[in-house]
Design a protein that fits this description.
single chain; 390 residues; alpha/beta; TIM Barrel; Non-ribosomal Peptide Synthetase Peptidyl Carrier Protein, Chain A; 2 domains; 8-stranded parallel barrel; 15 helices; globular; binds flavin mononucleotide
């Protein structure tokens, strides 16, 4: 069945995603509670990628990593998707086998876009596509271990404007059996600054013709997604920061792709109820104490731009029980319409750029040397990844 819009559903191996919209993997964000909320707003129609976990930590049985890789009861029966990070074939293959065999994952995404300094400095993350032969081995190991479960890759344009890697990475994805690829249309040097280069998505789409190409970067409102599809010809959109504190963006996206009017943005009181629901889900998933620590991060995103809450934001960031949170929310003085200007405000990540650190000699013999990455395999130190992402 096609959407009411001009765009075909997205096919990722056996999965059909209609509308062609994917929740971006975001460390510290796209855990089961947030995915559940996004799913509720969009009748489960999109694909919701779980936050990145490190293959080695997962295989070693680290409790926190294992917990993050679980799915909520509401996710039963709909595609369960998770992102993996690793630099060793054996770790990635073993983690994939467990995720598919025991956790029932229906989709594995691979993160090759992490720009964290200590990760690229040892040849991992966004540096990996500089070594296409090594990249190919890693992807092959996961595709083999995943069997009939589709595997996708997410990566950036390249290291910086002089060192583009996305075309090599795309070719690896095609040749090694990926079901789709996604481009975060920035370089690692850019981090999250400036506008995403949608023209690179268009160029990659022209170069990669045998599997779907997804575009990622700067979809803040539903109309942005349609524009990205039209302007780049991509097969689907991956939505990151735009949905932070705005899980109803997936409802809006469904409407826009269906050709229906985008619903009005929620008022402060409506947002308050979503925040309350999100807090309850976080408390159930992490336990009340840790769950409420997570809530601190979310309050600023949910309440961004509303004038009437400035004075209570501090209190919301100190609260440690659901009851206390409820009391503060109940005391909001008055309702307010959504401050529309805040929709496009970047809810996370500053405007810094960086000089990307690479191991000494990494740029010589890029295509011949397929040795393993020497160093770290811990991009998914979740706190660090939450700060730097992919
Ligand atoms: C808090 C946060 C955490 C992120 N963590 C990851 C991650 O673990 N893996 C990944 O591939 N990208 C990660 N990213 C990057 C996003 O998936 C996405 O590529 C990026 O935010 C650009 O899309 P946007 O402009 O829609 O936000 C993260 C982004 C944010 C804001």
């Amino acid at each position: 069945m096609t959407t009411g819009s001009a765009f075909a559903p997205l096919r990722i191996g056996p999965l059909t995603i209609d509308p062609p919209v994917v929740l971006a993997p975001m460390a510290g964000v796209t855990n089961a509670p947030f995915r559940t909320l996004c799913r509720r707003f969009s009748a489960q129609r999109c694909l919701y990628v779980g936050e990145m976990i490190t293959a080695r930590a997962f295989v070693d049985g680290h409790a926190r990593t294992r917990h993050l890789a679980t799915f909520s009861a509401e996710e039963a029966g709909v595609p369960k998707s998770i992102q993996l990070y690793g630099t060793r074939e054996q770790d990635l293959a073993a983690a994939t086998a467990i995720l598919v065999g025991e956790e029932g994952a229906d989709h594995i995404d691979l993160n090759f876009g992490c720009p964290v300094r200590k990760v690229t400095a040892s040849g991992g993350g966004a540096a990996l596509p500089l070594r296409p032969r090594l990249l190919a081995r890693l992807v092959r190991a996961v595709v083999t271990a995943a069997g009939s479960v589709p595997v996708t890759m997410k990566f950036r344009i390249g290291i910086d404007e002089n060192l583009t890697t996305c075309f090599d990475a795309g070719k690896v994805g095609e040749q090694e059996g990926c079901a789709a690829i996604a481009l975060h249309a920035r370089t690692a040097a850019q981090l999250y600054s400036g506008a995403a280069h949608w023209d690179s998505i268009a160029a990659l789409k022209r170069a990669v013709t045998s599997i779907p190409v997804l575009g990622n970067g700067d979809v803040f409102e539903a109309g942005d997604a349609l524009r990205m599809m039209r302007e780049t010809g991509c097969d689907g959109v991956v939505v990151g920061r735009g949905c932070l504190g705005r899980p109803w963006l997936f409802r809006d996206l469904c409407a826009a792709f269906d050709g229906a009017p985008v619903p009005a943005q929620p008022s402060l009181f409506q947002v308050r109820e979503v925040l309350r629901e999100h807090a309850a889900l976080l408390a159930t998933f992490f336990g009340e104490r840790i769950g409420l620590l997570h809530v601190r991060k979310w309050t600023g995103w949910y309440l961004r731009g509303y004038c009437g809450v400035r004075r209570v934001l501090d209190a919301l960031c100190r609260v440690s029980t659901l009851e206390g949170l409820g009391a503060i929310l109940d005391a909001f003085p008055r309702d307010e319409p959504c401050p529309l200007a805040s929709l496009r405000a970047k809810r996370c990540k500053g405007g810094q750029t960086q000089q990307v650190a690479l191991p000494a000699g990494f740029l010589t013999a890029r295509f011949e040397d397929d040795a393993e990455v020497a160093g770290r395999d811990d991009c998914a130190d979740a706190d660090e990844a939450a700060r730097h992402g992919g």
